[in-house]
């Protein structure tokens, strides 16, 4: 029997992975393409398929970074302390929608949204409250912020400065991934050109002033949450990454000077083997792109990434089932070699996670780390016929899709044409059709449902919270030096003009933003000043 006939006989009906990759009944050595040893390499060495560190989790476990942020800065600070006390090793901050959109809490556009999906931060005084009593020189902080990332980073720096902590001691990440906002999430403010120039400016600032800070977390997570497949998550994330690197290089930065501050953020969904293969393929793709397109050194070709378990996979029905989903996803992230991990609370499909759910999510990571054996050896699934075949196929399909974006002229042009949005929308629709047809099983939803209504979790009094936040902002406005604020904002406006296409000169913008923050200018005031200089983005 020929190999092809043997494979056909081995196939048990039509089975595919969530990305549409055919899955055989069994895998053999001839299912893996020749040259596996070269594609694998050694752990810690190019092309980093097996991990970015030679010893991986034997040397150091992934950072356990639970996402938290709700209501006021003081309430979020209390949740941070609870999680740190439970063994969390890094902070991760969610901001409310007004903060993400550069809108102050007392702006009419913020009505009903203050503190609802994250913490409200209006001035550096809020940032002081958020970080009160936390050892900023010992704990790294991730901030999920994009359009206003430079302002929130400036606030973090000013808090440290006013507490006597040097910039060089700070470690953390700003998401700062504006392109995926145009694609999948929507919290953009300014047009792409000056937004990309501002991203490059944060690269420069972090490389020279805050060397332990990751200037960007290039996010496939939100692309995946919007309905993308694993293949699309890889291709579109790396298309955006290429745009950022090119922007920085064209601005005069040496790739090896800033590549070490680039990090990534991926989702992890339920198909354990496809997700493990995705992470392994991602490292290999990034290493080759950086070497071939930018001549980066091997150290600059390392793909370091944070993983979050899939929010869109959580169900309001039978919410305790989500504990099992999150465990499978956490295991896949660890098997795939993540550097940092957030595990979702089981009740997040219903409301912001309760303290009980957040603690259990952290315990899930700890059990995987300390009891499962996954940290004992590097890349435990290497050599699996199935996993290696999936890794190769995901890489091949992702590079094909990335080539389509390149043919259009890159991410910015693809966004303007609606290509990313259309592709993701199609995948989301097809997935939903499979769920409704029962072809994709979701336990407790379209199979094994018990008919019970989802539980109700009490929500905070957001109206009272909004009044309190407005009061804090009013107090800052009443006590600050108004003339100093105006001078600082004028400097931001003047400097920002140099970031428009065709400008004859460009001065560093981060120092001007830091001066405005230090003067107690608000997020909304700084954002409005940049909008005056750059305009506001409106989708076609």
Brief synopsis:
This protein has 540 residues and is α/β, with parallel strands linked by helices. 49% of the residues lie in helices and 7% in strands. The chain has helices at residues 3-10, 36-40, 73-85, 97-100, 124-130, 149-162, 179-185, 192-209, 221-225, 230-250, 255-258, 272-294, 321-335, 355-371, 385-408, 411-417, 419-436, 462-479, 482-496, 510-518, 523-534, and strands at residues 63-68, 90-94, 141-144, 172-174, 213-214, 216-219, 262-268, 305-309, 340-342.
How would you describe what is shown here?
- The chain is of the alpha/beta class and 540 residues long.
- The chain is built from 21 helices and 9 strands.
- Helix 10 (230-250) packs parallel to helix 12 (272-294) and helix 13 (321-335) crosses helix 14.
- It has a 9-stranded parallel sheet with strand order 5-4-3-2-1-9-8-7-6.
- The longest helix is centred in the last third of the chain and has 24 residues, at 385-408.
């Amino acid at each position: 029997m020929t190999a092809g006939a043997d494979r056909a006989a081995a196939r048990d009906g039509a089975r595919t992975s969530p990305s549409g990759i055919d899955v055989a009944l069994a895998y053999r050595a001839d299912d893996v393409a020749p040259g596996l040893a070269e594609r694998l390499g050694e752990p810690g060495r190019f092309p980093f398929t097996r991990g970015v560190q030679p010893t991986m989790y034997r040397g150091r476990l992934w950072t356990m970074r639970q996402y938290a942020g709700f209501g006021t800065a003081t309430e979020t600070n209390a949740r941070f302390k609870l999680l740190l006390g439970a063994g969390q090793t890094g902070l991760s901050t969610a901001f409310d929608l007004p903060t993400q959109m550069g809108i102050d809490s007392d702006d009419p556009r913020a009505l009903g949204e203050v503190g609802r999906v994250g913490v409200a931060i209006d001035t550096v005084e809020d940032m002081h409250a958020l970080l009160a009593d936390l050892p900023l020189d010992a704990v790294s902080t991730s901030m999920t912020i994009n359009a206003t990332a430079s302002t929130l980073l400036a606030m973090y720096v000013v808090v440290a400065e006013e507490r006597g902590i040097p910039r060089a001691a700070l470690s953390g990440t700003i998401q700062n991934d504006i392109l995926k906002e145009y694609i999948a999430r929507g919290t953009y403010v300014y047009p792409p050109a000056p937004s990309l120039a501002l991203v490059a400016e944060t690269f420069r600032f972090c490389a020279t002033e805050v060397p332990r800070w990751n200037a960007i977390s290039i996010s496939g997570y939100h692309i995946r949450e919007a309905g993308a497949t694993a293949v699309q998550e890889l291709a579109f994330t790396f298309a955006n990454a290429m745009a950022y690197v090119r922007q920085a290089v064209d601005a005069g930065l040496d790739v090896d000077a800033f590549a070490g501050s680039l990090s990534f953020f991926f989702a992890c969904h339920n198909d354990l083997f496809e997700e493990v293969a995705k992470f392994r393929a991602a490292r290999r793709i990034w290493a080759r792109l950086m070497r071939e397109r930018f001549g980066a050194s091997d150290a600059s070709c390392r793909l370091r990434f944070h993983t979050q378990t899939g929010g869109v996979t959580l169900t309001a029905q039978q919410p305790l089932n989500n504990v099992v989903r999150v465990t499978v996803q956490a295991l896949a992230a660890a098997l795939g070699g993540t550097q940092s991990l957030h595990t979702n609370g089981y009740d997040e499909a219903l409301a912001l996670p309760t303290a009980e759910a957040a603690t259990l999510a952290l315990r899930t990571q700890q059990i995987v780390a300390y009891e499962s054996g996954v940290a004992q050896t590097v890349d435990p699934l290497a050599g699996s016929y199935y996993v290696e075949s999936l890794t190769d196929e995901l890489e091949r399909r992702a590079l094909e899709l990335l080539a389509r974006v390149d043919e259009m002229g890159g991410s910015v042009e693809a966004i303007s044409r609606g290509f990313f949005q259309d592709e993701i929308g199609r995948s989301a629709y097809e997935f939903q059709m499979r769920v409704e047809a029962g072809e994709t099983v979701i336990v407790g939803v379209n199979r094994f449902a018990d008919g019970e209504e989802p539980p109700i979790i009490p929500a905070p009094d957001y109206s009272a919270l909004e009044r309190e936040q407005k009061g804090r902002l009013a107090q800052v406005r009443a006590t600050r030096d108004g003339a100093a604020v105006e001078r600082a904002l004028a400097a931001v406006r003047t400097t920002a003009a140099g970031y428009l296409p065709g400008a004859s000169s460009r001065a560093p913008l981060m120092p001007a933003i830091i001066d405005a923050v230090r003067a107690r200018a608000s997020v909304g005031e700084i954002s409005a000043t940049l909008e005056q200089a750059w305009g506001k983005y409106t989708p076609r």
